[in-house]
């Protein structure tokens, strides 16, 4: 017997994904729909009677009258017109039993498609706890398709659904008369089939929202949550990152001892292991950040944070949904760009992706620390603020202000024919389910390691090759990198960067710095022949003492300005490519960041020289 | 009265949703989300920094709407008990 093709359809927040996870466990495949950046989730399972089922988790939709790319995919797959997708043999319409007034309308739209369909009345336990009684046989008769109760978060919560799948296939539902008022029909069904014994105002949402959405307490709660989130990302991830870093260093040494000195060893140790290390070191930060974001999303808090921040974000022409991705980008733009999936509006998502690299990520800090420590005097201004701290703050602020300006310019260059809308559901509060969190995290980790990681490692190896070949002739003076292709490219770049006050050493260091921004510090140390690049702490200290004798203050400030903007992060560009499926967007991001960096560094250099 | 002018915490009933222009996707979506004549609505919260957007409860569901979106919805409060 061939596999049964089933599609799960329903409103956002109907608990569809929990049901999908319950049915398929870890037998899932996440990819994109052909020709779209919409996430496609497919899984497999076998029913108790032994039928193989291929289950597609369609994006949540409020209506077949699509207003977003997600909804368009759902509409076309359900209609069987999406190219490359088989028309589903059966639609499993999922509705939250506690929110039937909204969800049944979409179920009736599904019924009108003329495909065999089943209604899964999900979260039936919560409805019953809330004092709601549903007359299932009557509902089944009025909605015109078999109805099964399900509980996505309970182990045996899909039993009735599985029994339904093993039984006779449901008939194609009888079409509704043309011009039926779906809302009126839903109202009729609800008054016939549902009795509510407890009044509405007793619901949890009522009481929680009084605090969470409060004009004063709401922002206070948000700030406390964000404080802990960042505490977790920076403080708790650090020991893990240090551990991984040390582990990869140890691995490099062990492998290095096994291999004879030469090109192969350098390739494996300095290219592959170092490249993989730079990817894996990010992982704790990314996982902790995503654990928070997923928990906030699953609990229903994320849309409320977006509500509180909508006004603030509208200054940049964005909606509140862009806030969390941009905030995450202060840790690292990679999870920030990945987190833009929570933004439904494609244009807002694109603008957010494009400005995410302007948030000062943690990888820029080593460079800032080095240059500020070496060039900015440790002096108090008005007895209150330290000049070094002020400059650091200024660099962060410059990034944020530039992001607002860029976002506004992008909006102005591509005026939306529709007005900027919010129109967002504030779903019921829910305790995040551990299985759904774990599966969500696993999925993110896999995407990061497989898709982004492979790109980063291959580019790191390429940069290693550029920095290592050709090798200097025996006994040649100067650092080896100066003889390599990267060194030559650095010298060739000099005429372009000389107007910014950069010398050839900076140009050479910029090339390996492409792999990850903080590598530039080690590369500078290498160029200035300060011993091996492995003991970076020691090298950074020496470098800090030496740089003021080699560079002018104007050059240092110019390099700082360059670093606020420069798109020197292969990982970010790789994740932009992965999330937008477009090299054009990658080119746009890299191009505008480069242009901004160049102009900012040029102005900084020439203004600083006047003093 | 427009939904955007409704005071917070006051119960009201929807009269109609206006289209802005001939095809108004926002108005269409509002209707699909249940903003249809006869439904009870209430503004449960207004956002900080100027009271925009609004959190609106309709039936069992809450939505965040900007004031420009809420201005499409006409409501009346007469005869509704809190």
UniProtKB/TrEMBL annotation, chain B:
<dbReference type="InterPro" id="IPR038157">
    <property type="entry name" value="FeoA_core_dom"/>
</dbReference>
<dbReference type="Pfam" id="PF04023">
    <property type="entry name" value="FeoA"/>
</dbReference>
<dbReference type="InterPro" id="IPR052713">
    <property type="entry name" value="FeoA"/>
</dbReference>
<dbReference type="InterPro" id="IPR008988">
    <property type="entry name" value="Transcriptional_repressor_C"/>
</dbReference>
<feature type="domain" description="Ferrous iron transporter FeoA-like">
    <location>
        <begin position="1"/>
        <end position="77"/>
    </location>
</feature>
<dbReference type="GO" id="GO:0046914">
    <property type="term" value="F:transition metal ion binding"/>
</dbReference>
<keyword id="KW-0408">Iron</keyword>
<dbReference type="InterPro" id="IPR007167">
    <property type="entry name" value="Fe-transptr_FeoA-like"/>
</dbReference>
<protein>
    <submittedName>
        <fullName>FeoA domain protein</fullName>
    </submittedName>
</protein>
<feature type="region of interest" description="Disordered">
    <location>
        <begin position="1"/>
        <end position="23"/>
    </location>
</feature>
